[in-house]
Amino acid sequence: MGNEIQILSGSQGECLAVAGGNYRVLVSGEQTSGSYAVIEMNVPPGGGPPPHSHPLMAETFYLVEGELEFKTESGSERVREGGFVRIPLDGGVHCFRNVSGKVAKMLCTVVPSGLEVVFRQIGVPVKVGEFLPPPAATPERIALLEKIDREHGQKTYPRDYLD
Fold first, then answer.
1. What is the spatial distance between Cα 114 and Cα 125, in angstroms, rounded to a whole number?
2. 69 in Cβ contact with 45 (< 8 Å)
3. Do 108 and 39 touch, CB atoms closer than 8 A?
4. DSSP state of 41
5. Structural domains in the chain?
6. Which of 86, 84, 10, 101 is nearest to 47 (CA)?
């Protein structure tokens, strides 16, 4: 499949409930020999992941709709429709939160691929546009997240880490 042209409709792709959002894998590492992955992220108002780092992956975000607050160790900045964020390799701790009153939509590219694998491990399959509440922070869930972080060379921090 790596050398075939791929065309997806707006309802195709693998959709996962992740951190309260609806993440649709458009291109996976299996299709690119691990070189990159592309994920459409739909984040409800107030939603977004906790602070985290993945030093072995570079990540870009193009905000299609909505408004997000991106936080890094250098501070925070509002990103509006048409805005772009680049997290380089070893780019440090970052997170985002939807600060608009509507679902924020962005395209995320990860180089090399692998983040979509993490999302498969922490998320659950859903339909396009279906939003589930984030899972409760039970001891079992925390242990699972810590295990996944170790396996993928990343780290998740407390929600208030960048405040």
1. 17
2. no
3. yes
4. E
5. 15-126+133-156 (2.60.120.10)
6. 101
- 31 half-sphere exposure, CB direction, 13 A CA radius: 14
Closest listed residue to residue 66, CA positions, set 86, 39, 46: 46
Residue 17 CA to residue 124 CA, distance in Å, equals 5
Q: What is the DSSP letter of 136?
A: P
Q: Are 2 and 32 in contact (CB under 8 A)?
A: yes
Q: Along the 163 residues of the chain, how does pLDDT read in single tens digits?
A: 557 888 988 888 999 999 999 999 999 999 999 999 999 999 999 999 999 999 999 999 999 999 999 999 999 999 999 999 999 999 899 999 999 999 999 999 999 999 999 999 999 999 999 999 988 889 999 999 999 999 999 999 999 999 9
CA angle 144, 145, 146 (to 5 degrees): 90
The two tokens of residue 154 are: 């990343």
CB count, 10 Å around CB of 151? 11
